[in-house]
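hiii so um. not sure if this is the right channel but i have a protein structure encoded as tokens and i wanna go backwards to a sequence. like what aa goes where. can anyone help
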């Protein structure tokens, strides 16, 4: 199926070994971050925060969080060009959504007179909030929309990536407590360029048969 989108996704794979001498340019990083910024989310809630680790000091802090487990992912933190912590708001409230609505007015999406009516969409957040104000299942789901968008953008830019769910969440959240400011980080993303010894770069793409996954009615 010859198409640029399909070509992007055919080339994309999970990098297993990075070349530490190769860095993502500021220009490409800006494109990636803006694509994450533009990601879709339910009711345009944008219940997320992204911590970009680019300095050696920040990456060393992340490196130390692997002291107890998931050491197989530890090397990516220092060898990849950047690591991005994907975080979500576990207690998304009407006050949080107010920022979205007020931005609508700034951007000309709605008028000041339409402000109160716009809060009708917040019903979807309420439906995903338990009696303790916990929304983290819903907000984490939104976060993965941004992650998927990032993976495709990276493929288009020719930048390799490794989604990292193998992180020690309590330690990461303690180490980056100031930056996260109450948000939860349960997944990160390493980006950069693969080393010539990366075995996964040489393997063919493999997916289940189309007919096993898609049902047309």
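sure thing!! here u go:
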């Amino acid at each position: 199926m010859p198409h640029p989108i399909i070509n992007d996704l055919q080339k994309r794979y999970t990098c297993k070994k990075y070349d530490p001498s190769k860095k993502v340019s500021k220009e490409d990083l800006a494109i990636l971050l803006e694509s994450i910024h533009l990601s879709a989310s339910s009711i345009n809630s944008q219940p997320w925060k992204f911590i970009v680790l680019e300095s050696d000091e920040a990456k060393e802090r992340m490196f130390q969080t692997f002291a107890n487990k998931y050491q197989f992912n530890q090397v990516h933190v220092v060898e990849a060009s950047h690591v991005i912590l994907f975080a979500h708001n576990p207690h998304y409230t009407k006050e949080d959504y107010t920022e979205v609505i007020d931005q609508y007015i700034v951007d000309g999406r709605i008028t000041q007179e339409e402000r109160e009516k716009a809060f009708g969409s917040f019903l979807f957040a309420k439906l995903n909030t338990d009696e303790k104000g916990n929304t983290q299942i819903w907000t984490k789901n939104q976060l993965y929309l941004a992650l998927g968008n990032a993976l495709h953008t990276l493929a288009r830019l020719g930048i390799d990536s490794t989604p990292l769910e193998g992180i020690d969440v309590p330690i990461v959240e303690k180490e980056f407590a100031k930056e996260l400011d109450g948000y939860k980080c349960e997944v990160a993303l390493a980006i950069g360029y693969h080393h010539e010894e990366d075995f996964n770069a040489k393997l063919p793409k493999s997916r289940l048969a189309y007919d096993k996954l898609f049902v047309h009615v």
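oh and The CA atoms of residues 39 and 148 lie 9 Å apart.
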